């Protein structure tokens, strides 16, 4: 804006930027792209790629090396404003540098082209759609499908009621998660005690220094400067600053410790607390306590990692599946003073509601009257894994929540529902399903199962994993790595998560061997 306002209104001019390339295809930047189209007569984009943040495997390799050795993709953009050219929208010329290139190869291409006017600079003309998509454009057919959910309008004509939720966001993962319950309890008690001491200290200081007239942002700033930011004691976040201001104290409760799914195929204990989390979203309605069971279909909403879907039966972290949205089989409503019997009154309890709408059940029973809401739930899970669907609507799934059709052929419906049910059983019970019969495990007979960090036998050989100095897993079929969720294969998620890590700021160690012992 600053630059374009300084172009000559009569003669126009040219602006050149080197920026990150996220804006080219990010759904949240559609308004920005529309503004560029409207304001300029010509736009030239040279996409240098190299964005590897949040990507792994072949996704990252295709981006190539980064020209600035950073993790975010880079683009050169030339914006031309020519008042003599009468167009409703800019002509957009786009050049992609290509896949799998090294940094030096990219520099050579830049040197060879030299200018957007060079005959070597071959461009394609992009015609944006009504959504402001430039690169991966949405498919109009997608809008004809039924939304999974709709919180914006609260429309009932969806698969799920509007109680779906993001995963848990603690903003203090090293404190709030651990493989060992005792360590988690100890650290959370320590951080709560420290917070309460800071709360007391501020209350005394507030009285002594007569801070009654300090309000709003000025008071928040004072508190942020006042509190002890020692990372060995606590990780501060917005809710704790607000609670310090109001003088609210915290109390540790062992009942708040439960099992959560931190990352794909990685369970840990979590301190599930509204006070000590940045955002719990709707998770208390989905998993109010360990006594109330549920299933959630968690779909990714992170453009960088591509679309993926994974089921959970315990509290999912926000990063469980790339800033996931969780669509539940049930949701729970807290009701006070439920009379459970003549001599048995309980202060509070939860009433279970269906997460699947009556609308979609009525639609499905026109296909087959035997269909239940649970069958529909698994139908959704199966359909979202269909390769043809995910390939055809890849651009749409990057930019918006899934929409899927309700297939009117009974045989096809039951095929997807059964596939979804079978997949769910594998994904939920990954710790106990039968191992692949072809895989060979050597050295396990000695019982030395302690792991520090798993590694591949060599950089170019993923058929063998060195579990530890005593145990090797070999003859792994390479097709197993084709199953990718949250930007990484399932096998590589297990290798990455089940290693001993010590956080450099807090000094807290998280050891997966503790999980095995418990």
In short:
The protein has 518 residues and is an alpha+beta fold. It has helices at 30-39, 57-63, 103-113, 173-176, 181-208, 216-226, 238-246, 283-286, 358-365, 373-384, 387-392, 394-399, 410-428, 490-497, 512-517; strands at residues 13-20, 42-49, 74-81, 91-96, 124-126, 146-147, 165-166, 177-178, 257-263, 266-271, 296-299, 309-312, 315-316, 325-328, 330-341, 344-354, 403-404, 440-442, 455-458, 461-466, 472-474, 484-485, 488-489, 501-502, 509-510.
Helices and strands in order:
Layout: E1 13-20, H1 30-39, E2 42-49, H2 57-63, E3 74-81, E4 91-96, H3 103-113, E5 124-126, E6 146-147, E7 165-166, H4 173-176, E8 177-178, H5 181-208, H6 216-226, H7 238-246, E9 257-263, E10 266-271, H8 283-286, E11 296-299, E12 309-312, E13 315-316, E14 325-328, E15 330-341, E16 344-354, H9 358-365, H10 373-384, H11 387-392, H12 394-399, E17 403-404, H13 410-428, E18 440-442, E19 455-458, E20 461-466, E21 472-474, E22 484-485, E23 488-489, H14 490-497, E24 501-502, E25 509-510, H15 512-517
Parallel strand pairs: 2-4, 9-13
Antiparallel strand pairs: 1-3, 2-3, 4-5, 6-17, 7-14, 8-10, 9-10, 11-12, 11-14, 15-16, 18-21, 19-20, 20-21, 22-23, 24-25
Helix pairs in contact: 5-7, 6-7, 10-13
Structural class: alpha+beta
- Overall form: globular
Supply Rg: 27 Å
Distance between the termini: 57 Å
Q: What spatial order of strands do you see in the largest sheet?
A: 1-3-2-4-5
Oligomer designation? single chain
Relative strand content: 15-25%
How many beta-strand elements?
A: 25
Helix content range of the residues, please?
Answer: 25-40%
Could you list the spans in which at least 5 consecutive residues all have pLDDT below 50? none
Give a quick account of the main beta sheet: strands, pairing sense, barrel closure: 5 strands, mixed
Number of helices: 15
Mean pLDDT: 92
């Amino acid at each position: 804006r600053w630059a374009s306002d300084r172009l000559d209104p009569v003669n126009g001019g040219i602006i050149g930027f080197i920026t990150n390339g996220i804006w080219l295809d990010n759904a949240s930047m559609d308004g920005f792209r529309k503004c560029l189209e409207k304001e300029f007569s010509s736009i030239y984009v040279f996409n240098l790629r190299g964005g590897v943040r949040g990507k792994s495997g072949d996704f990252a390799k295709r981006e190539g090396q980064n020209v600035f050795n950073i993790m975010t993709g880079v683009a050169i953009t030339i914006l031309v404003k020519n008042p003599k050219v009468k167009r409703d929208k800019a002509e957009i010329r786009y050049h992609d540098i290509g896949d799998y290139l090294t940094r030096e190869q990219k520099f050579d291409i830049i040197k060879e082209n030299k200018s957007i006017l060079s005959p070597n600079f071959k461009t394609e003309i992009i015609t944006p759609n009504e959504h402001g998509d430039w690169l991966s454009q949405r498919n109009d057919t997608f809008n004809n499908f039924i939304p999974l959910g709709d919180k914006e309008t609260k429309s009932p004509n969806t698969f799920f009621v509007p109680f779906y939720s993001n995963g848990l966001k603690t903003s203090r993962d090293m404190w709030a998660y651990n493989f060992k319950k005792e360590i988690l309890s100890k650290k959370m008690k320590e951080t709560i005690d420290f917070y309460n001491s800071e709360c007391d200290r501020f209350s005394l200081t507030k009285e002594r220094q007569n801070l009654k007239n300090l309000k709003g942002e000025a008071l928040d700033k004072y508190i942020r400067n006042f509190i002890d930011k020692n990372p060995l004691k606590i990780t501060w976040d917005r809710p704790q600053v607000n609670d310090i201001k109001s003088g609210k104290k915290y109390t540790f409760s062992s009942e708040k410790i439960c099992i959560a799914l931190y990352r794909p195929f990685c369970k840990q204990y979590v301190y599930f607390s509204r006070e000590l989390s940045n955002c719990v979203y709707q998770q208390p309605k989905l998993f109010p306590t360990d006594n109330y069971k549920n299933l959630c279909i968690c779909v990714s909403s992170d453009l960088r990692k591509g679309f993926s879907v994974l089921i959970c039966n315990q509290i999912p972290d926000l990063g469980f599946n790339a800033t996931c949205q969780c669509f539940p089989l049930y949701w729970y409503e807290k009701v006070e003073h439920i009379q459970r019997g003549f001599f048995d009154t309980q202060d509070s309890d939860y009433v279970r509601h269906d997460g699947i709408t009556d609308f979609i059940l009525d639609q499905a029973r026109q296909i087959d009257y035997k269909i239940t809401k649970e069958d529909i739930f698994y139908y959704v899970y199966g359909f979202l894994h269909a390769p043809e669907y995910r390939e055809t609507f890849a651009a749409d799934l990057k930019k918006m929540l899934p929409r899927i059709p309700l297939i009117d052929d009974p045989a096809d419906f039951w095929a997807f529902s059964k596939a979804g049910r079978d997949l769910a059983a594998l994904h939920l019970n990954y710790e106990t399903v039968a191992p692949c019969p072809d895989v060979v495990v050597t050295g396990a007979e000695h019982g030395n199962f302690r792991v520090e960090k798993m590694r591949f036998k060599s950089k170019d050989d993923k058929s063998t994993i060195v579990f530890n100095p005593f145990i090797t897993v070999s003859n792994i079929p390479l097709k197993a790595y084709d199953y990718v969720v949250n930007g990484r294969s399932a096998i590589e998620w297990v290798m990455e998560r089940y290693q001993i890590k010590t956080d450099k700021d807090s000094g807290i160690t998280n050891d997966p061997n503790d999980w095995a012992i418990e």
